[in-house]
Amino acid sequence: MSRSLLRPGAEAVQGKGWLAAHKWLLLRRFSQLGILALFLVGPWFGWWIVKGNLAYSYTLSTLPLTDPYVLLQSLLAGQWPEKLAWIGVAIVLLFYLAVGGRSFCAWVCPLNMVTDAAAWLRSRLGIKGGPHVSRSVRYWILGMTFVVGALIGTIAWEMLNPVSMLHRGLIFGMGLAWLVVLSIFLFDLFVMRHGWCGHFCPVGAFYSLLGKGALLRVRLPQRDACNDCMDCFAVCPEQQVIRTALKAVGGAGPVILEANCTNCGRCIDVCSKEVFRFGLGATAAAPVCSGSGVAP
Amino acid sequence: MSDKAQTTTVASGKRRQFLVDSARLACGVGLLGVGMGFYAEHAKALPPAALRPPGALPESELAAACIRCGLCVRDCPFDILHLARPEEPMATGTPYFVARQRPCEMCEDIPCVVACPTGALDHSLTDINKAQMGLAVLVDQETCLNYLGMRCDICYRVCPVLDKAITLDPQTNQRTGHHTLFIPVVHSDYCTGCGKCEKACPTEVASIKVFPRYMAKGQLSEHYRLGWVEKEKAGHSLVAPDIEHHFNMPEGMHYELGKGLQQAPPAGGEAGDAVPRAFQEDQL
Asked: Less CB within 10 Å around the terminal CB: N or C of chain B?
C-alpha cells in the first residue's frame, strides 16, 4: 500500500506487469504520435498520405475530415463552406458521437502530450496547490469564442488556439507558436494541475458536447472490488467524472457517463483490482465489449 | 431561527454564491473575449508585403471563411504559399505569399483554389487571368531604370499578361531633350497581382511592388465622367464644339508643335493683331 502512496499505478505494475499497466497509455501515445506522423510524412518525406491539419484534412485525396468546432465558428461568422468540408464534418461528427467527443483530446490532440507531460512532471516534483477555477469555465470560453467570432465576423479563436497552433506549427512551420505551447506547459506545471485541458480549453469543451450519448465508455464491471487506493483519481485528468459511477452515487450504474471523460483509459491501466474496462453502450445495462471480465 | 427560515437562508446563500461565481466567470471570460476580439479585429488588415492566393475573399471575409487547413499551401505546385505564424501581423494560420520571394506562377487550373474546402478561395474563379491578388504599383520613379532613361523593361517582359497589365508608354526625356523614356504603366483591369514584376525588378529594393488592392487602387467619385470616354460612347462631343485655337504671335513669328517659335510664317498666317483673336469675334 505504501508504494501506491508514492506513485499511482505502482501496485498495478506489480500486479500485472509494466506493459499491462501502461497498455492504454502506450496505445494512446501510439495513436497521437501516429496521427501526427501521418500528417508529417508528407512535408518531411513527400509521402502525401494526409494533407492539411486538424482543422481540415484530405486523406489519399478521398477522405475529407473537418473540425466541426472551427466550421461552426466559420458559419457563425457568416460563411458557407464548400461540399467537401460538409462531408468531412459529417464524418467527424458521427465518429465522435460514437466514441465520445473528448476521445479527441486523449487520442488525437497533440497538445495533450504537452499537458500530460506537465501533469506528470508536476506530480513527480510534488508541486501542489494552485488557484481554484471551476471546470465549467471552458464552456464560458467556448460561448465567448462563438459570440466574439460572430460579432467581429471572423474565426477569432483561431488567433489564439494553442491546439491548432501547435499542430499547424509542426506541419507548416512553428514560428513563435512554441512560446504559446511552452506557456501552457509551464502553466500546467506550476500554476494549475490539468489547467489547460481540464479547465480552459474550448476545443475540448466543444468536443465534450459530442460526448453525451457516446457508445464507447469506461465501464466499471468490478466496482465492488475497489479498495479505495485512489490511483485512478490521481491519474485521471478529469477527476470529477469517476466518483458517480465508482461509488454508485444516486444509484448510478457502473459506467462513466460524464461527457468530459476523455476515454484515455489511464484508470484502467493503474487499477490493480481491474475495476475499469472499456465497453460499448451509453446505458449502465449495456454489455462489456469484449474479454472475459465479470459481467456487470 | 425556525427550520424553514434556516433553509431559506441557506438557499439564498447558495443562490448568492451561484450568482457571484457566475459573475466572476463571466467577467474573467469577458476580459479574455475583449482582448481576443481586438486582436482578431486588428488582424483583419493585411500587411502590405503579404498577398493572398488567387480567388481569396476580401480581407474582411477571409478570416471568417478560411479554416487554416493549409490545403492551398499543399496543392501549390510552386510552393509559394505560407500559413501566417502567430507572430506575423495577419490572421494566424491564413495563407499568403510574398511576391519578392516567390511570385504566383498563375497556374491555369488554379490548384490552390480547387483545394480550398471552404470557399475562402472563391471557387467561382476559373480563369486565372481574372485573379486579383493585388495590384502592381511603380512605387519609385527615382529608382526605376526606365524612368532613368534605360531600357530595362524587365517588369514589362516578365508580366504574364504581356502588354496588357503593363505597357511601356513613351515620354520625352526632358533631361536630354532628345531621348524617349519608356514608362512602365500598370493597368488595373488586367493586372492579377501575381508579383512577377516585383520579383524580377533588378533594383536593390524593387521599384515596382505589388500591394493588396485596397492599398493600391484609387477610386473616382461616382459622378466623375471622362470626357473622351463619353465622347466615344456618344459618337460626338457632349460639350460645345471646341473653338479653333489661334496663336497670337509677335509679327513674323509662327509656332510649330515640337519646334517652338519659327520665323517666316506660312502664307496668310496668324500674324499678330493687337487685340487677341478671341475678342475679335463672337466666339466666346
From this structure: C
